[in-house]
TrEMBL record:
Entry-linked SMART domains: BTAD (SM01043)
Family recorded in the similarity comment: Belongs to the AfsR/DnrI/RedD regulatory family.
Name this polypeptide is given: AfsR/SARP family transcriptional regulator
Xref: InterPro entries: AfsR-DnrI-RedD_regulator (IPR051677), BTAD (IPR005158), OmpR/PhoB-type_DNA-bd (IPR001867), Sig_transdc_resp-reg_C-effctor (IPR016032), TPR-like_helical_dom_sf (IPR011990), WH-like_DNA-bd_sf (IPR036388)
DNA-binding recorded as keyword: yes
Length: 240
């Protein structure tokens, strides 16, 4: 219940929405009473951490409940804001981008919305946050590479690749960091292993970005030393 309300901090969530999220369509004899019992438990926890001068954080409103806090009080919202600003600063101010992204990623303590139930809203939000976390890591590593920290980020990228073996962008960045550190053979071997894994697990070939990086490393392309080498390949969508 708290997670559902926090996702819409400062805005009312209807009884119907909360019942659907908390019990996922399971029949309830008296859903209003069930919600009130949940709200009472949540309120006790919140009030134990609320300053004495502060009014109740969880409020009942007509036909629903509201978590009466500003959106920026929710760590998920702070993360999304920091990740967005960090990504936007990547090409113009990589040092600032790295600071913002590091601050955002430090907010994480485990899987997004862990143990928040199987409701559609929390599950969808968790997927969004996890995708944005991966993008934030991509941007942070890119910023560090722009700043010349090639050797230092290799261990970090190796861990990210191990945790996300089918995430091609991490592999691409690791190949670049290895190549820039004079480890061309390791970069090529990383491509081979990733291509094998993609084929065995998904039945697909590496995407355009990864294949381009492989070709550039084989050719020892001078452009790999330039900041532009960090730009991901964007898929162009054309109208019919």
């Amino acid at each position: 219940m708290l997670a559902t309300l926090a996702l819409r901090a400062g805005r009312a969530v209807s009884h119907m929405e909360l019942v659907d999220e908390l019990w996922c369509g399971s029949p309830l004899g008296n859903p209003r009473n069930a919600l009130q019992a949940q709200a009472t438990r949540v309120r006790k926890v919140l009030e134990a951490h609320t300053p004495m001068h502060r009014t109740t954080v969880l409020r009942a409103v007509p036909n629903g409940y509201l978590l009466d806090v500003a959106a920026e009080c929710v760590d998920a919202n702070r993360f999304l804001d920091l990740a967005s600003r960090g990504g936007a600063a990547l090409t113009t101010d990589p040092e600032r981008a790295a600071r913002l992204l590091e601050t955002g990623l430090r907010l994480w303590r485990g899987p997004a919305l862990f143990d928040a139930g199987e409701g559609l809203r929390c599950a969808s939000a968790a997927t969004l946050f996890e995708e944005r976390r991966l993008t934030a890591w991509e941007d942070l590593v890119s910023a560090r590479l722009v700043l010349g920290s090639n050797t230092q980020v290799i261990a970090e990228l190796q861990q990210l690749v191990a945790q996300n073996p089918l995430h091609e962008r991490f592999c691409e960045l690791l190949m670049l960091a290895l190549y820039r550190s004079g480890r061309q053979s390791e970069a090529l071997e990383r491509f081979r292993l990733t291509r094998k894994r993609l084929d065995e697990q998904l039945g697909i070939q590496p995407g355009a970005g990864l294949q381009r990086r492989h070709a550039e490393i084989l050719a020892q392309d001078p452009g790999l030393a330039q900041p532009g080498a960090l730009a991901p390949v964007r898929r162009v969508t054309t109208g019919v």
